[in-house]
Amino acid sequence: MKEGCGRKQGVPSPCAACKLLRRRCAQDCVFAPYFPADEPQKFANVHKVFGASNVNKMLQELPEHQRGDAVSSMVYEANARVRDPVYGCVGAISSLQQQVDVLQTQLALAQAEVVHLRVLQMGLSNHGLSPTSPTNSGSPSSKFMDTQPKHAFDMDMVEHASLGDSLWC
Ligand SMILES: [Zn+2]
Q1: Which of 21, 43, 63, 152 could bridge 16 with an S-S bond, Cβ 3.0-4.6 Å?
Q2: pTM, two decimal places
Q3: How many structural domains are present in the chain?
């Protein structure tokens, strides 16, 4: 790789990285395509968190078509670290992971309810042939709607709670 020899006199301004590092921006500057002069903060945070020489090393080790993605990842991580010096982007990841867990639980409950209602519907359409409906007098649908799902959820909650307790003891 040639260094500095391809430099032109007509280059208008150094890239954000070379400007911050107070060095001459060569034509084949590894930072120039990803850190334009009009976005100085982008490189400032990356430099603060990773160090310019490490960023340089990482970019040199990558094939050119992967460098853009690597830079966006480093910029994201650096900005998160500046915003939250303790957790950095791990804070965002774990809060999103918690949301995923909550939503997966909700989804599982909703799917269980769908299955439960389908079973009820089958029992009702069989008109007493189902062994799960002991009496068919009155209006069984409203009775089941009111009681069954709640019992199912309560039992789930109890099971989860006791499982959790035994795991943590
Ligand atoms: Zn440069």
Answers
A1: 43
A2: 0.57
A3: 2
